[in-house]
């Protein structure tokens, strides 16, 4: 045998890293952190990916602010304070607790069952909204309207359906609320809110898509030591016809109008002196003819003694009248008012 055949074969293998080192490096390369919402992000991911993930997972609703809505609901609070006192016969305090934007589906899913979800129709806008009376206020109003004792907390019967009498009483309350809501919108836009139907299951009160944004207004109603809340939900699609009006900034009381100043201005305008002129006739002449006029030149008019003259104020024609005399003075008797077609 040759010397090469006697030598043993030696294989040189690459040095393998320890298992613990490999796992540590792998975990280091893929270290993950969790944000407040529970979503995991790789530390090596870009800020753009993090922003998109945060935007998708965010449940917050951002929508344009409508300044005039606050004024409308402040007016609603004042109106309801009086009407609710007349309706219940008790001393009622109404407060505006919050105005916020919510997704319609999220809000409807948060309503406990059974509930009184009242759907109303905005006739001029041809769209709907929802009025929700919470359970505490339902039993408080039923107790008050049916002659319950003052100061006692109303009895509650959880997990049972409302009776026909209870639903009828709350329907009357909602109709009073809608009447005041219509009056609150009157200075901006005349609108009629009409009661449509009452649902005890929120699933049957779907008036818009679950992802649509709506304005949610929460009003606190307090009767002595008892009370509850009324929540008004109006989709932004319902308010779209008057969106431009609601974007205006509020100035002054009564939506920018001051009735005292208006009446004073009208009174002063009626005592204003105006200068009016009576025009006998109007003719067109060439400039050369006018330049040839001298003292003693005569101007031939087309008017006759019985012709009517035009009375104007500045450039605005007002009346047509006949020339005559009264108390030794030349006078004009009004024959008729000049309309736009004659002017």
Automatic annotation (TrEMBL):
Flagellar motor switch protein FliN-like C-terminal domain location: 268-338
Residue ranges, annotated region (Disordered): 1-33
Annotated localization: Cell inner membrane; Bacterial flagellum basal body
Alphabetized SUPFAM superfamilies for the sequence: CheC-like (SSF103039), Surface presentation of antigens (SPOA) (SSF101801)
Record's GO cellular component terms: bacterial-type flagellum basal body; plasma membrane
Keywords: Bacterial flagellum, Cell inner membrane, Cell membrane, Cell projection, Chemotaxis, Cilium, Flagellar rotation, Flagellum, Membrane
GO molecular function terms noted in the UniProt entry: cytoskeletal motor activity
One BP annotation, GO: bacterial-type flagellum-dependent swarming motility
Bilayer topology annotation: Peripheral membrane protein
Classification via Pfam families: FliM (PF02154), FliMN_C (PF01052)
Stretches with biased composition (Basic and acidic residues): 1-10
Stored Gene3D superfamilies: CheC-like (3.40.1550.10), SpoA-like (2.30.330.10)
Family matches, as InterPro entries: CheC-like_sf, Flag_FliM, FliN-like_C, SpoA-like_sf
Family the entry assigns: Belongs to the FliM family.
Job of this protein: FliM is one of three proteins (FliG, FliN, FliM) that forms the rotor-mounted switch complex (C ring), located at the base of the basal body. This complex interacts with the CheY and CheZ chemotaxis proteins, in addition to contacting components of the motor that determine the direction of flagellar rotation.
Protein name, entry field: Flagellar motor switch protein FliM
The species this protein was found in: Candidatus Odyssella acanthamoebae
